[in-house]
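Instructor's aside before we start: the two examples that follow are unrelated to each other. I chose them only because their records fit on one page, so don't look for a connection. First example below.
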Amino acid sequence: MNKLETYAEWVNCFEQFKAGTKDEETILLMEQGQIEWTKGVAERLTQQLYETIDHRLRRSSDQLQREINTCNGNETALVKAILSARKRLAVLKRVAHLPAFPEQVRETMWNLLHDYAKSTQQSLEDSAVTDRTGRMRSLIRNNPITQFDQVENVFGSTPHAIPISDATGTAPKLEQKSRKRRVILP
């Protein structure tokens, strides 16, 4: 598909994103898209963006609830469920910050995601109060869903560029592992 330029192309792209089949390709296409921001198109396109993000938030919430319900006290499964939800929110963050939309729309969509993350985190912490050991509450606090904005490389693909160190202008050297044998004494 070519660059998105018309309202119909954007709506088709939003529908594809709602389906959740090709998120990476769809987001890249949306990030490169543009549209003439006229009065009639602006409101309808903003509404479509809101509905798309809201749809994916509801799906993410349902999936998080299913994953938590199947944890059965397994701490690893709980942390995995939270990290998975955080990753899904990071995907939505990219959609909320699409450059084709004005700053006010991007800020509104960001606030929608941020408010959802805060309320979900609070709900998780409130539900962990019944755990007498405090372990679940500690796990939830140490792995907050609200830090979705710090998730990088959402789709797991390899980075396209090697980072350059600031001082020398060259790629950083990877440290060699020690070949010495490590002995752990009791």
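Example two begins here.
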Amino acid sequence: MDVLIYLVPFTVIFSLIGLIALIWAIRSKQYDDMKGAAERILFDTEDNNRNDSKDKNHRK
């Protein structure tokens, strides 16, 4: 039971750190565009297609 003297404050401190990090992320608009990053991974941009064609011609 003596270990609870250390565990309870430790848990409260880390919970507060997590809560502060969550509030900071929400206020700095980290969660505004949830679909953007997921869709950006799936589709190539025009720049990537141009670079790929240059690399293929350069290798020949």
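The chain has a mean pLDDT of 83.
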